[in-house]
Amino acid sequence: GKTTIIPVLSSILSRPHQKMFIGCVAPQFRLIRRSVTSRLLHSSRVIAMSDNQLDNNISKPQSVATFAAGCFWGVQLAFDRLPGVLETTVGYTQGNVDNPTYRQVCTDRTNHAEAICIVYDESQTSYEALLNKFWAIHDPTTLNRQKNDKGTQYRSGIYYHSEDQRKAALASKEEHQKTLIKPIVTEIMEAKQFWDAEDYHQKYLEKGGQCADKGCETPIRCYG
After folding, report:
1. Known catalytic membership, residue 222
2. Using CA atoms, how far apart are residues 122 and 118, in angstroms rounded to an integer?
3. Is 6:47 a contact under the CB 8 Å cutoff?
4. For residue 11, what is the DSSP state?
C-alpha cells in the first residue's frame, strides 16, 4: 500500500542505484517502490506510516542511532535482541569513499567503520539504553581492534544524529569510564554518510541459526 513519510525529515534524496543515505534510516523507513528507490536525508527522528496506520492513528515517532563496535555481525544480533529496537541495518560509515564494498573497507584505505543503523521505538526503550548495550557488547579500550579482528574498520564509535545524542554519548562515556582501568578510545562524532553493507552481511548470524528473539540471552557466536 501507499506509504506516507511525515516530514520531521529535512528532505528526500533520489538516487535509484546507490545504497547511500545521510545518517541512517533503516529499510522499512525508506520510501521504496519496485522501480524507484528514494533515500531519506539525515535526521535522528522519522515517522513512517502506512495508510492503514494513519487511519488507525497507531504510528509513533521513531528514532535512529548509529554505532560501531567491531564486527557488525554480532553487533547486529545483540541489538536485534533488545526490546524496543524495531529494525537494524549493517553498513559502512565515517569513510572517504562513496559506495564502498566490503573488500575495499578491509584494505584500511577507505577509513570506514563497520557500523549498525538502529531504528527504535522511544516508547519502549531509550538512547541511553542503547548506549548501555553498546558498552556491554565490546571492549571500548582497544584501538582499532575487537578480539581477533584488527583494523580501522573494527574501531569503536558512537555517531550522533543530534545535539542531545552527542551530550548523552559523552555523559555515558564518562560514567562507563569509571568502571574501567584502561582509557576508553571510542570516537564520538557526528554521523556521516552511511552505506548499506552487502545483502549477505545483513542478519548474518540470525540467518545462520542464532536466536534473534527479543530478550534472548544465548551467547552470540560471531563466527559460528
Report:
1. no
2. 12
3. yes
4. -
Examine residue 215 and state whether it is found in any structural domain, yes or no: no
Rounded to whole angstroms, the Cα distance separating 220 from 178 reads 26
| Assigned domain for 39 exists | yes
Residue at 84 is within a domain: yes
Q: What is the pLDDT of residues 63-109, one digit of tens each?
A: 999 999 999 999 999 999 999 999 999 999 999 999 999 999 999 99
218: in domain: no
Q: Which of 24, 71, 211, 216 is catalytic?
A: 71
Domain that holds residue 111: 3-207
Q: What is the pTM of this model?
A: 0.78
Residue 8, number of CB atoms within 10 A of its CB: 12
Query: Which of 189, 145, 143 shows the shortest CA–CA distance to 166?
Result: 189
- Helices and strands in the chain, H and E counts: 6, 14
| Sole residue written with cell 528514532 | 63
Distance linking the first and last C-alpha atoms of the chain = 38
